[in-house]
Amino acid sequence: MVTHDPHSLVGFFVTEVGVRQAWTFITFERDEEGNTPSTLRLSIDTTCEVTPPPTQILGSAADETAVALTALFEVLNLTVASVSLADDASLILDFHGGHTLRVSGTAQAWTTHDVWWLSDPHAS
Question: How many whole angstroms separate alpha carbon 2 and alpha carbon 99?
Fold first, then answer.
């Protein structure tokens, strides 16, 4: 698996959120041609939060996957305006429209992989 520079997400928009195997993911697309693939997937194996937070949570608040997906629904169809990495390796995506996604740089007890990674879902 090739990991891409997260800063390349600027200008990409969110087309899909979901769970694949054990990991929450976000799929990003862009219309421009270039060296970066036109589709990238951010896989998340730790906690994340979106601000402002959603007004409702699907399912039980005890279901961490449902809580994460509900938060990620807030960034569907939004375009990434800026990307930064915090000192603790947290990934911070600011979107046009005022939403921010912060993916923790800290592993949880259930983390089985890197805390987050960015890849081309079509690469073999």
Answer: 28
